[in-house]
Amino acid sequence: MNVTRLYLIRHGQVVNHHELRYNGHFDVDITDLGIQQMINLSEFLSGVKIASVYSSDLIRARKGADIISGKLHVEVRSRSAFRELYLGRWEGLTREEGAAMYPEEADFRFQDLATVRVKDGENLHDLSGRVMPALDGILKEDGGGNICIVAHGGVNRVILCDAMGLPLENFFRIEQDYGCLNVIEYFDDGIKVVKLLNGGPNQELRMTKIY
Questions:
Q1: Residue 59: CATH number of its domain
Q2: What range defines the domain where residue 190 resides?
Q3: Which of 23, 70, 131, 147 is most exposed, with the fewest beta carbons within 10 Å of its own?
């Protein structure tokens, strides 16, 4: 039985992480720590024979993918379908700024994103509707080997919900820290198995500092 192993990564820490902004498609860079997180992952994956590396075309994901692909000597293929959830007119704003600018949406709850959206933005089903077909195409094209995707917290959660058979209402129950690694195996009979969730070398370092 053929199996495809997906190494699914969230980009490194972003430069405005401390401001708690809704970046979405807002194109922000990663910090020096974010770069180091990607270097750690590239070294962690250096012993894995990865056939292809994909990423969102936003700089915070693409920069990490470039670091990883450079170590693995594999060309990066960017996919706009792997961009983060689009937040419409809330793009680049904090919660407080969005509520002040658009008081009619002040009671908007991101926990309800499975079914609702801010004006001109996406909900989780919209996000899934562009992410999953792109992933399915990659699995068909490069199936049977090891694949790496560097994307975003929202994109990763959609993929993980699908792999675990969870409704998108469970989206926010899945943690995706900066620089985390998930591993999912896809079998050719349709079975999907999550082997690692929100782990990897950066999580090991984080837990060491905490404890």
A1: 3.40.50.1240
A2: 3-210
A3: 70
Per-residue model confidence as pLDDT tens digits over 60-97: 999 999 999 999 999 999 999 999 999 999 999 998 99
Contact 63, 35 (CB under 8 A): yes
How many residues can be counted in the chain? 211
pTM above 0.85, yes or no: yes
**Which pairing describes strands 181-187 and 146-151: parallel, antiparallel, or unpaired?**
unpaired
Do 82 and 138 contact (CB within 8 A), yes or no? no
Spatial separation of the C-alpha atoms in residues 99 and 103, rounded to whole Å: 5
pLDDT digits (tens, 9 = 90+) for 102-133: 999 988 888 889 888 999 999 999 999 999 99
Alpha helices in the chain (DSSP H): 32-44, 59-72, 95-101, 124-142, 153-164, 201-210
Q: How many domains does the chain have?
A: 1
